[in-house]
């Protein structure tokens, strides 16, 4: 019973850390995507509603952006969980 309470408390304490890490990962991923698109695309990344852009360009941008965001989020989430384990001795969640 005490172990379950401790685990719940750790989840609750990790929540604000997770939110901050999520915001940071979004900013990092956004920067990485802008640099990646500058290397492979022509100009700014297209928006799905951009009438002037072709389907293939819009879908390529979406795929690259999604891949970058997923990788950065996984790396940041994993690093955050490892940091919490180092500090508290147990894995969050």
Automatic annotation (TrEMBL):
<keyword id="KW-0812">Transmembrane</keyword>
<feature type="transmembrane region" description="Helical">
    <location>
        <begin position="58"/>
        <end position="76"/>
    </location>
</feature>
<dbReference type="Pfam" id="PF14019">
    <property type="entry name" value="DUF4235"/>
</dbReference>
<feature type="transmembrane region" description="Helical">
    <location>
        <begin position="12"/>
        <end position="38"/>
    </location>
</feature>
<keyword id="KW-0472">Membrane</keyword>
<dbReference type="InterPro" id="IPR025329">
    <property type="entry name" value="DUF4235"/>
</dbReference>
<protein>
    <submittedName>
        <fullName>Membrane protein</fullName>
    </submittedName>
</protein>
<keyword id="KW-1133">Transmembrane helix</keyword>
